[in-house]
């Protein structure tokens, strides 16, 4: 099922990661994506750009330890935080992305600052140096570790990396421009220096005013191997966003394995989302309705009731 808005109007959708929500965290997950949606929605209602709306939504998710982004990021095998984030402007095809970033409150802010620079991706120390030069809010690396993530790291000893996913947002503004953004702390216990799909254009995200916008989440290596964002956009003209996402995510699972999810918008404002993981917190809204849609699963029954 999809929802659409008139060609002149705004739309926004956010997700909190494709994973199984731990018991007792359902309400926090719903509340978190709704708060992020409200932040981005306000920007669009006030006439702001899709890029600004995406950054506003991601900042809220990065401040919420319920999600694996910013404060509350997963710890790598060294017990430290390395964050990835990306932002893309569908009007200009400008990209700002960072990988292996440490000591920054909001990695999406750094990606935003890089958006109009010549470089599209900075990593590790270079990304941290740029964050300081651009006036990003810095912090001690350990300040990003929530008590819950510290406990998860301690319990992870001798286990394989766990699943803990990217957050994302896509938006359409009143000028008809699209934007997509991602932010993540990676996988619990991942090898230091590991980078998944989230900062890689065409893999974990993409935005083009002529084609659509998508932000993905899930098993990053699988998403990157399939160039999943690019495959989604190539199939979008002949399918609804839901159907196009379903097809590419199921194809990914069959070809290289792994579960994932995604959110998307067409240039005309059609909203879509799908996931092959057990859960994926999602919230979306558009200018043709005052209603805010909030889900943790892609349930057809829930969707039908909400319509």
TrEMBL record:
Know the name of this protein? Isoaspartyl peptidase/L-asparaginase family protein
What species was this sequence derived from?
Deinococcus oregonensis
């Amino acid at each position: 099922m999809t929802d659409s808005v008139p060609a002149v109007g705004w739309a926004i959708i956010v997700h909190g990661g494709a994973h199984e929500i731990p018991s007792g965290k359902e309400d926090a997950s719903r509340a978190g994506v709704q708060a992020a949606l409200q932040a981005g929605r306000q920007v669009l209602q006030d006439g702001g750009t899709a890029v600004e709306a995406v950054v506003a939504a991601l900042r809220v998710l990065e401040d919420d330890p319920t999600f694996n982004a910013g404060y509350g990021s997963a710890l790598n095998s060294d017990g430290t935080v390395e964050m990835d984030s990306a932002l893309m402007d569908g009007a200009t095809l400008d990209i700002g992305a960072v990988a292996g970033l440490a000591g920054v409150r909001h990695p999406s802010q750094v990606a935003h600052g890089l958006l109009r620079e010549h470089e599209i991706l900075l990593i590790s120390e270079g990304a941290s140096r740029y964050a300081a030069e651009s006036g990003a809010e810095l912090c001690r690396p350990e300040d990003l570790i929530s008590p819950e993530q510290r406990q998860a790291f301690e319990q992870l000893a001798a286990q394989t990396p766990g699943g803990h996913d990217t957050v994302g947002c896509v938006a359409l503004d009143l000028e008809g421009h699209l934007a997509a953004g991602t932010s993540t702390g990676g996988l619990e216990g991942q090898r230091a220096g590991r980078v998944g799909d989230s900062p890689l254009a065409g893999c974990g995200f993409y935005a083009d005013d002529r084609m659509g916008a998508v932000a993905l989440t899930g098993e990053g290596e699988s998403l990157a191997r399939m160039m999943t964002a690019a495959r989604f956009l190539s199939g979008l003209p002949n399918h609804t966003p839901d159907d196009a996402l379903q097809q590419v995510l199921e194809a990914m699972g069959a070809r290289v394995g792994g579960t994932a999810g995604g959110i998307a918008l067409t240039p005309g404002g059609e909203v879509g989302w799908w996931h092959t993981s057990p859960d994926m917190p999602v919230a979306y809204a558009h200018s043709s309705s005052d209603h805010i849609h909030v889900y943790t699963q892609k349930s057809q029954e829930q969707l039908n009731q909400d319509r």
